[in-house]
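Box 3.1. Reading complex inputs
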Amino acid sequence: MVGNKFERILLTGAAGGLGRVLRETLKPMTRILRLSDIQGLGKAGPSEELCPCDLSDRQAVSDLVRDCDAIVHMGGVSVERPFEEILEANIKGIFHIYEAAREHGARRVVFASSNHAIGFYRQTERLDARAPTRPDGYYGLSKVYGEAMASFYHDRYGIETISIRIGSCFPEPKDRRMMHIWLSAHDLTELIRRGLFTPEIGHTIIFGMSDNKETWWDNRLAAHIGFQAQDTSEAYRDMIEKQPMPAADDPTMVYQGGAFTAQGPFEPVRK
Ligand code: NAI
Ligand code: 15L
């Protein structure tokens, strides 16, 4: 740390939807922002370092993490895909990130977990972070694995992590389900700031949502983070309620993970 800033924060997934936003909003938190992705990152701006890297390459990730004090890990496959793709980017990727953090002394990680770690809960159920995970696919499984990895690296090596189970972080909620779990970019940034700067967080799991009126999640177990959302999905209610009502058994109306619960299998059944 230099004053009230980190010396160097690594942002993975920097070319992605959230990464492009965080590329701007993380800047006040660090003297140098190191940006990484397998996709193009454009030109380096002031106080930026561009470091292309495939998360599945252990040596490349080790080199990437060197000299970083903290890691905001957004990179990886962000939707349901065949297991082998998830294995490379997400499962091997998170192992490489934590091993590199241990090796090079990075002490704090922000992990972009997902609501799909608990996606097979019904929308009628209310959860806190102690509820057993119920992943809704290989993608959700990789987020459960990432959270377990964060827990282990804290218990064994003292590396602290906030695992943010992001709901739906887009400019606007897109459907009725997202009204419950929407997270604004502004609130995501504040959540990350709290995760980076709050002392002694151990491994904290928090549901990443704005101040939505009807939510399924209880964040009291993460009260020590001190996060107060500023935005709410209510601002979009009129727009969303103009959409046709889906059937009552549509996965987007039944499960917290919505349509992800009905994806796959990616291979045909063999008799
Ligand atoms: P995104 O798909 O737009 O961005 C992910 C980035 O990771 C992409 O730029 C991609 O090129 C990069 N990536 C993929 N495989 C890689 C590899 N092997 N090596 C290096 N980079 C690789 O996703 P988005 O929406 O920006 O999400 C960011 C993170 O937040 C993801 O981890 C996602 O799972 C998580 N998340 C996002 C939510 C949302 O509503 N946007 C909800 C829940 C979780
Ligand atoms: C996620 O985990 C995905 O990364 C994102 O693209 C959305 O699908 C989001 O969950 C969601 O559930 O809306």
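In summary: DSSP finds eight helices and seven strands in the chain.
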